[in-house]
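Title: Request for sanity check on Acetoin utilization protein AcuC prediction

Description:
We are preparing a figure and want to confirm that the structure record we downloaded matches what your pipeline produces today. Could someone re-run it with the sequence below and paste the raw structure tokens into this thread? We only need the token string, no images.
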Amino acid sequence: MANALVVWDEALLAYDMGEHPMNPVRLELTMALARDLGVLDRPGVRVCRAEPAGDELLTLVHRPDYLHAVRAAPLDPFFSGWGLGTTDNPIFEGMHAATAGVVGATVTAAEAVWRGEARRAVNLAGGLHHAMPSRASGFCVYNDVAVAIARLLALGAERVAYVDVDVHHGDGVQAVFWDDPRVLTVSLHESPLTLFPGTGFPDETGGPGAAGTAVNVALPAGTSDDGWHRAFQAVVPSVLRAFEPQVLVTQCGADGHRLDPLADLRLSVDGQRATYLELRALADELCDGRWVATGGGGYALVEAVPRAWTHLLAAVTGDALDPATLTPPSWRALAARRRPGADIPLRMTDDVRLSGERWKPGTEPDAVDKTIMATRRAVFPLHGLDPQDARD
């Protein structure tokens, strides 16, 4: 068994919407940085390609008529509908094949972990968490993470936990499994009062047959590392331990970074690195290490995403990278060629140290603590947990 599987193929760069924030250069630069730092050459790490998902897989989540629309859209200059042809989701040539490739890569990662072929697996091109069964949304055409979770259920998984740390609410995944008690969806995101998609309030807790299986932490704009981690520790470990998942699937969007142009959280690469290590520790504790990680959002294409996701790759494949590590000159040269004029980082850190401060019950001094308490009050009793109990 491989310790870790990295699903990667340059064909995944074909998910390219042109002049658009979702620029695949972020993936190219991430993989180059990880390769130059030796992360992909560690013992027990296997890099593989995946076949695109076929209709049988895609229809675990998506409607057949929507698949037809995605195939047809690039062939019709007057096409409209299904959430396609918008500013967020422009139609591009080869759209079906490119997106099916992303889905196939995430499903390959999930299958390898479930079957014991790898302890952990990652597809950085994945994390298209906004796509709905019959509609594109938020840069996402097909929902690879939802399809992968549905595939895990089809293979016999009885309890799958999904944790989404993208700055945007993981609305598509939540919607797909809203009524399914076998899937716990947990999303930490910027408040829907200030950011797309306008969902993910604390009182969204799951359908009638699955109460408590949707957990939402809606953080106020401007939240920085310490507030983020205080919220993460106050909510995520407790609900995961109560749910007792067999496998952990995560969406690790890097768009909570303070330099991201599309959102207003204030995280650092150091804080994101700490989150990935916390997710790994929870997978080790609760799922015998079974962890399927994906990328997601992230639009500071040079300044943040490659470093954040290289730290994610390090967490998946073995030892964490020292934040003080220098970015290799070869990588800096590539970044300068791909994005002339960009501010190219010299080190794998933003020089931020987390305080480690934990949430305490009975005190709500700021908006983050009020957010924490709103989520705990909404969902903890549904898991038999006391909202006022600070023990994990």
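Thanks, this matches our download. The longest strand covers residues 183-190.
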